[in-house]
TrEMBL record:
Residues 24-278 form the EAL domain. This is EAL domain-containing protein. The lineage of its organism: Bacteria, Pseudomonadati, Pseudomonadota, Betaproteobacteria, Burkholderiales. Keywords: Cell membrane, Membrane, Transmembrane, Transmembrane helix. It is found in: Cell membrane.
């Protein structure tokens, strides 16, 4: 069905759009309830040193299980949380959970591990981030260098001046900073020298066909070289095969993350997982 609006343009109200809007609102409502009732969980995915195969840390990944709908993918609920503003309390919950986990690790003899947390553009642009992190640091008595904050290129470039200032302040506090999904945004190279970051995470899209696609292989090799010459370390995302691991190790990527080394898992399993790895994963 189409209607004329005041300027003579047609506006469309399709059944599909109504259904999408309806679903959107339904999920948003359910997310608010889940946040209040403890329906969210943080899972941890190992990051390993490519040289030794040992676990050096983890990335915190949000999980949502709804009693009626079952498990809902982050790719479905994060965009809705971003749009509705729910990502602010939700992201805050993830940060608090991450700091609590770091404190637990310290007491359990896993204090050398680092934990990476994804930040949305909204959290990053809001102005409340720094004071909130300070508060959590003091509450949990955490070494800030154990926490890594991941932001995407797209989020960083939304307001480059603000990003630049905030990254500087975060780095001055001692936090580690990583650019997530590197290579999927725009102006990937110019800002590397502008922003005070520690690491880049090469997007899974480049790693997937690394053995068969010479362009991907060239891009990954050159990116690692560039990062190293700028003094940054590199994590490769989405490593699933021994051959990918071998390639990345030969190219001197520092670390890797992917199903080959471990799926995201509940936090209580992760400590066991790390201890079971006293023997490193056998190399390619
Ligand atoms: P990301 O930060 O790039 O996280 C990596 C994603 O790749 C995760 O998907 C992870 O499960 C998946 N992955 C890891 N290894 C492999 C592999 O070997 N093969 C394949 N096929 N996939 C792999 P997940 O957990 O579904 O999260 C998707 C995205 O949702 C994340 O991408 C991140 O952008 C966002 N996200 C997750 N948790 C949070 C959060 O707490 N806050 C915010 N703002 N975003 C989050
Ligand atoms: Mg990430
Ligand atoms: Mg990523
Ligand atoms: Mg991603």
């Amino acid at each position: 069905a189409a209607k004329r609006d005041g300027r003579g343009n047609f506006r469309f109200f399709s059944p599909a759009m109504n259904a999408a809007t309806h679903e959107h609102l339904m999920l948003e409502t359910k997310m608010w309830a889940a946040l209040e009732r403890g329906g969210f969980e943080v899972h941890l995915q190992a990051q390993v040193s490519l040289e030794t195969g040992r676990v050096i840390g983890a990335e915190a990944l949000l999980r949502w299980h709804d009693p009626e709908l079952g498990s809902i993918e982050p790719s479905r609920f994060i965009p809705i949380a971003e749009e509705s503003g729910l990502i602010l309390p939700l992201g805050d919950w993830v940060l608090a959970r991450a700091m609590a986990l770091l404190a637990e690790w310290q007491h359990e003899g896993l204090g050398g591990l680092r934990l990476a947390v994804n930040l949305s553009a909204r959290q990053f642009g809001g102005g409340a981030l720094l004071s909130r992190l300070d508060q959590l640091l003091a509450q949990h008595q955490i070494d800030p260098s154990r926490l890594e904050l991941e932001i995407t290129e797209t989020a960083a470039m939304r307001d480059p001046e603000n990003t630049r200032a905030l990254l500087r302040q975060l780095r001055a506090r001692g936090f580690k900073l990583a650019i997530d999904d590197f290579g999927t945004g725009y102006s990937s190279l110019a800002y590397l020298k502008l922003f005070a970051i520690d690491r880049i995470k090469i997007d899974r899209g480049f790693v997937k066909d690394i053995e068969h696609d010479p362009n991907d292989a060239a891009i990954v090799g050159a990116t690692i070289g560039l990062a190293h010459s700028l003094g940054l370390s590199v994590v490769a995302e989405g490593v699933e095969t021994q051959a990918q691991w071998g390639f990345l190790r030969d190219k001197r990527s520092d670390e890797a993350q992917g199903y080959l080394f471990g799926r995201p898992m509940p936090a209580r399993e992760f400590g066991e997982f790390v201890r079971a790895q006293a023997q490193p994963v056998p190399g390619p």
